[in-house]
Structures are given as structure tokens and as C-alpha cells.
Amino acid sequence: MKFRKKPVVIEAFCLGIDPMPDWFCDARSASRIRTYGEYNHLTHCEIETLEGTMDGFRGDYIIQGVKGEIYPCRPDIFDMTYEEVFDE
Predict the structure, then answer these.
(1) How far is 58 from 76, CA to CA, in rounded Å?
(2) pLDDT bracket for residue 88 (50, 70, 90)
(3) H helices then E strands: how many in the chain?
(4) What pTM did the predictor assign?
(5) 31-54 pLDDT, tens per residue?
(6) Percent of the chain with pLDDT over 90
(7) What is the C-alpha separation between 71 and 48, in angstroms, rounded?
(8) How far apart are CA 61 and CA 71, in angstroms?
(9) Taking Cα atoms as reference points, which of 8, 28, 7, 13 lies closest to residue 72?
(10) What per-residue confidence (pLDDT) applies to 6?
């Protein structure tokens, strides 16, 4: 059997490159995310997920899923899986 991922819109940013969105800052304030490095030059983060602690590194995409879950994604996987959505 083969399956196609349903088209859903997520929010994401590139760690250490893009500005941190409010949802990421809120999770960091709630101690669900630990960041390392300076604000504009983050080197990595540790994200508490239901599957355990996941590491995200500078250049990785940090995704907020459809249920508010947050997890890292390597750039090559992100590029194969997602495309930018432009508001109409």
C-alpha cells in the first residue's frame, strides 16, 4: 500500500536564521524548549516531545504541527515534504 501525506498547513522557521515566532518563545518560557547560543545566533535547541527529547541544530526547521506539537526537521527532509504557502 502507498499513502500520500494530507495537505495541511504548518508553521515553521529556520533555527538560528529566522526570527523566533511567538509559539516557540512561549514553549521556551514554559521550559518545553531549551536553547543554546545567543538570541540571533542560536546553535541548537532541545525540544521535549511525546517521543522524548529531540535536538534541533542551526539551520534545521522547527515545526509547529496541526495540534500545536513542536519538533525539528532537517532542511533536506523539510524541502522534500513542504512548500511555502502564500496568503491570497
Answers:
(1) 14
(2) low
(3) 2, 6
(4) 0.88
(5) 999 999 986 788 999 999 989 999
(6) 74
(7) 8
(8) 8
(9) 13
(10) 80
Q: What is the pLDDT, as a whole number, of residue 86? A: 85
Q: Are strands 52-57 and 61-64 parallel, antiparallel or unpaired?
A: unpaired
Count the Cβ atoms, other than its own, within 10 Å of residue 24.
23
C-alpha 26 chain-centroid distance: 13
HSE of 2 in the Cβ direction (CA atoms, 13 Å)? Answer: 1
Task: List the beta strands (DSSP E) in 7-69.
Answer: 11-14, 33-38, 41-49, 52-57, 61-64
Burial of 34-47, coded b for 16+ CB within 10 Å and e otherwise, reads ebeeeeeebebbeb
The sheet with strand 52-57 has its strands ordered as 33-38, 41-49, 52-57
Q: What is the pairing mode between strands 11-14 and 41-49?
A: unpaired
